[in-house]
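Protein details
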Amino acid sequence: MRITRTGGGHGRRAAIVATTALTASALLLTGCSSDDGESDGTDANGNITLTVADYGQFGYKEANLFAKYHELHPNITVKEETTANEQDYYPKLLQQLNSGSGLADVAGIEVGRIKEVVDTQADKFTDLGKAINVGDWVPWKAKQATAKDGAVIGAGTDIGPMSLCYRKDLFEKAGLPTDREAVAKAVAGGWEDYLNLGEQYQRKAPSGTYFMDSASAMYNAVVSSSSQQYYNADGDAVYKDSPSVKQGWNLAAEAADKKLSQGLPQFTDAWFAALRKGSVATIACPAWMSTQIVTYSGDAYKGKWDISRAPGTTAANWGGSFLTVPKSGKHVKEATELVKWLTAPEQQAAVFKAAGIFPSNQKAYELADVKNAKLPYFSDAPIGQIYAEEAKSIPAAVLGPKDGTIKDTISTQINNMEKRGTDPDDAWKAATDTLDKAIG
């Protein structure tokens, strides 16, 4: 998931569509301009320009990593080409793969797409397992990017361990506990407890506020805590009978029926406005979500938010991406070295510090920028400890080629239940009819 950072179901949603300012600085440092390079990205003096295609926010600009890489490798300039929305980025990537042209030296791939790429396009990517110690990642991360022949085509960038972000001031006004340990205890039984807490909130809710932003977000959090989601181990689409999908759907329908949600699809203008207005009391909160809340809630709500463990005892992951090196690149060796460096513990820790994007590299968890991390905006919540503890117990999920499509389609119908009052049975039929046509 990528946002302004996740995957309607994808995490990183929006970002500036341009070459970063860091890249511009690096170009000045090397004395290059876009007119100086040959077709392979090398100028007359042997200076190399590597392109990194990604979407949303990977945190490299915020952590100043491309400029730092240029300092370490004066002959290499990194040019970042960012697409705002992953749903626009991915079709273009597939088109480039199918045509064999236009690919960047390094390409990002979202977790909801990685299975499809591994199954259908693996032979077009470099095996990074030969250059990077994939054992440093959380165990299930490498599996997600491993092809049938054992090639690891993607280096893990981040993951999205789940938590619960909540407004302490609104909880207090509604007579609910405000201490993060007390909140965790109140929802320890799972997402059913979370809805029960929502009903308590509703009885004394401050005017104009809602317990959660959207039932579709809660649904995604519920499904993300299960090892079996939309596909089984044999590669069959099982979303119609999946226990986690059924549980998430039923809970979402209950939330919609009881008016516990404001019914705002995440990363929309209305959602951003609700954060600015302060009308939402809780948000299902993968690690990357905190940056969104800080950005759009603004200074007025600093110290009023806090972070607690997610409902239930089963850890969940929502989001995460990979960096790949297409074989067609002119500088595969240099691109592979860049990816190795960007996904090393120190750089992943720097990205977490700068942009709140949590590392997939376990060795980063012992570095001070992760281990001792606290968020002043969220009442000094010890996010490094919260997310690292969650990350270590996340179950390995079975991924499928159309996870993103399924998640987005179901989320759309949950939004229809919330905003249009669509009957749950009718909404489910609409979702499955759409998916039958889309994926069979």
Q: What stands out?
A: Residues 166 and 282 are 4 Å apart (CA to CA). The longest strand covers residues 155-167. Residues 4-38 have pLDDT under 50 and may be disordered.
